[in-house]
Amino acid sequence: MTDTKNAQTLYDRLWSDHVVARGQQGRDLLYIDRHILHEVSTPQSFELLRENHLEVRRPETQLAVPDHAVPTRDRGAGIREELARRQVALLEANCRAFGIEYIPLTDERQGIVHVIAPEQGFTIPGITIVCGDSHTATHGAFGALAFGIGASECGTQMATQCLWQTRAKTMRVTFTGALPAHVTTKDMILALIGRIGASGGSGYALEFAGEAVRAASMEARMTLCNMAIEAGSRVGLVAPDDTTIAYLDGRPRAPQGRSWDQAVAHWRTLRSDDEAFEREVEIDAAALAPQVTYGTSPDQVIGVDETVPEASRHTMDYMGLNVGQPLAGLPVDYAFIGSCTNSRIEDLRAAAALIRGRTVAPGVTAMVVPGSTMVKRQAEAEGLDKLFTAAGFEWHEAGCSLCVAMNGDRVPEGKRSISTSNRNFEGRQGAGARTHLASPAMVCAAALAGRIVDVRKEHVS
Amino acid sequence: MTAVRTVSGKAVSLPLDDIDTDVIFPARYLLHTEKKGLGRFAFHDRPEIVAAFEAAGHPQILVAGANFGCGSSREHAVWALAGLGLRAVIAPSFGEIFRGNCANNAVIAAAVDARHIGGLHAAAAAGGEIAVDLEAQEVRADTLAVPFAIPAGDREMLLEGWNTTTRLLALHGEAIAHFENRQRAERPWLWNKDETTP
User: Fold this and answer.
1) A423 and B73: CB-CB below 8 Å?
2) Residues of B in Cβ contact (< 8 Å) with A92
3) A298 and A264 in a common domain
4) Smallest CA–CA separation between B138 and chain A, in Å?
5) Same domain, yes or no, for A349 and A448?
């Protein structure tokens, strides 16, 4: 577990620390410390265990919560949609059968997997952590080797606590300078995806560095790492520092007492050597404008002050846009603040701060879906819910909601949505829905104006 | 899993880049908890793609564009393609999670150099047979013979038809136990005090 080789990246150190057996051509058997489960990607994983008469090797390392299929309103009535109700019940039954802790819908710890695991201190630096969900890179914000896997791999992990993985190359993305007002880590990651493309990170593990990353809170770092997969990379990392350690101190599942001191001493060693990266990308954070996507792939993104560039006829028709058209001024029908990308307390604060007594524009459906019940309660304690509802926003229970549109929340065909989520794919927010990805402040500003606006120009002191 | 050596048969051409798993398997059908019978949801919101599959007459091979299967980790995308009868996908590149999911479901994800994909699209569109030879790591169509890349571990697993999970335990059970004992000593905060070492 000690590696004395020179010039290593954080990724290399995390990898070496978890190799159980060496394979061929860069493929190693990795020990996987923790696994988060949700209702959508695990029914078939438990079937794999049953078919092979296998047990869960270390139930203590597993944590399950329903998030994708759950309703985010009228929860007192339970889940009305039959398939969703059965799917959530199946997760609970499987967890009971295999001895895994299950957080029920009614528990204040419930929420989106990638929000609740850090919140509970289940995610800590230095570990390997997986989930049957491509946005698992979120947890890389803590300096954990975190990546999304398929349902079969979820079953393999539960039975063996291991997965065969091919070692990636490493790319450091340095964000120099300080972010301007109203520009966020969401804009940083969208700008990166625009720069390197939707498969530009394929085969690489990304590490984010530079002044703008060091200055970012854990919530903001999670937003940054969350969308690594939209650049084609399964892994997005930030080296742990004082910000990381302060966030975790006292979390329910974080190490306590003497264990905490031992853990922190190890976490302080988790960093990269400058010369170890195979590829370097540098982006001037100080020069970034708020970013908005115009197409159906997350790399189709521009600054809000730019005009729509060339794209395929199919994409332009789907999005109802013309080449050369400015995005600013485009009317919107839906505004969504939520998802594992942007549903944490800071995201809600940033959006609420823009309201200043105004109301959602006529004809716009605006909704806020907190990432967890704990985020929801925190927001309510701060009075944010009242600001939102007084302005005409819907205030929901925690879940994935309109990011994946499989729980009944849906954007109708042909309607235009501005969304803090992570994917503008065709049909992602509902069949025929037109999605523009942006930051929470940009989404809130658009909801109030009824059209896409430059949040920097909205600011009135 | 059944062993796969060569897949040959009719192919369908889908010459678009960045086809994501939401296009392959729309999210609203993720409420289904089974693997079988999901072919009916494949490309559900893209009738022109469904029509291309029908026109190709039950193809076993899909010739696709770059970054095929990007996005969501949903294995349903592979189950749905397999449900349509597909046993191999040929593309210049794949979403990484999708590629791994293919290997776990006896589907060959064959990555060919981008300059060869045009010829394969043409062959598929012309209705000819394509062969994906996993042993030789070669795609053949008419006069074309094109090498393809696949991770060595995936190739071996497909050729042998191994069960990843039981094989892993049988071959590496001791190494896993050894790792766990060492980690418990060196990183004790990762273990509950009352947890028994497996």
Assistant:
1) no
2) none
3) no
4) 19
5) yes
How does the average pLDDT of chain A come out, rounded? Answer: 96
Identify the DSSP state of B109.
E
Q: What parts of chain B have a pLDDT lower than 70?
A: none
* pLDDT above 50 (res A461): no
Give the total number of structural domains in chain A: 2
CA-to-CA dists, residue A66 to A78, B30, B106, angstroms: 13, 13, 30
Residue B194, pLDDT score: 84
Question: What part of A 313-342 touches B (C-beta under 8 Å)?
Answer: none
Tell me which chain A residues have a C-beta less than 8 angstroms from the C-beta of B78. Answer: 150
Which of A226, A51, A199, A211 is CA-nearest to residue A123?
Answer: A226
Best B190, B191, B195, B197 member to test A by mutation, with max A CBs in 10 Å, is: B190
Plot region of B152 (φ>0 → left; ψ -120 to 50 → alpha; else → beta): alpha
Q: Which residue from A426, A156, A147, A456 is spatially nearest to A296, judged by alpha carbons? A: A426
Using the Cβ of A41 and the Cβ atoms of chain B, whether some distance falls under 8 Å is answered with yes
In three-state secondary structure terms, A178 is coil
User: Which A-chain residues 129-168 have CB contacts (< 8 A) with chain B?
Assistant: 132-134, 148-153, 155-156, 159-162, 164, 166
Name the residue facing A83 among B20, B31, B187 (closest C-beta): B31
Strands (E), B15-128: 61-64, 88-91, 108-111
Whose CA is closest to A223, among A252, A189, A251, A195? A189
Portion 64-123 of B in contact with A at CB < 8 A: 66-67, 70-75, 78, 93, 95-97, 100-101, 104-105
Domain presence at residue A119: yes
Segment 217-276 of chain A within 8 Å of chain B by CB: 229, 232, 234, 255, 259-260, 262-263, 266
Q: What is the pLDDT of residues A16-50, one digit of tens each?
A: 999 999 998 889 999 999 999 999 999 999 999 99
Q: What is the largest CA-CA distance in chain B?
A: 65
Average pLDDT over residues A291-316: 97
CATH number of the domain residue A328 falls in = 3.30.499.10
Give phi and psi for A140, each to the nearest 5.
-60, -20
pLDDT for residue A159: 98
ipTM of the complex: 0.97
Domain B6-160 CATH superfamily? Aconitase, domain 4 (3.20.19.10)
Q: Where are the domains of chain B?
A: 6-160, 163-198
Helix, coil or strand: residue A101? strand
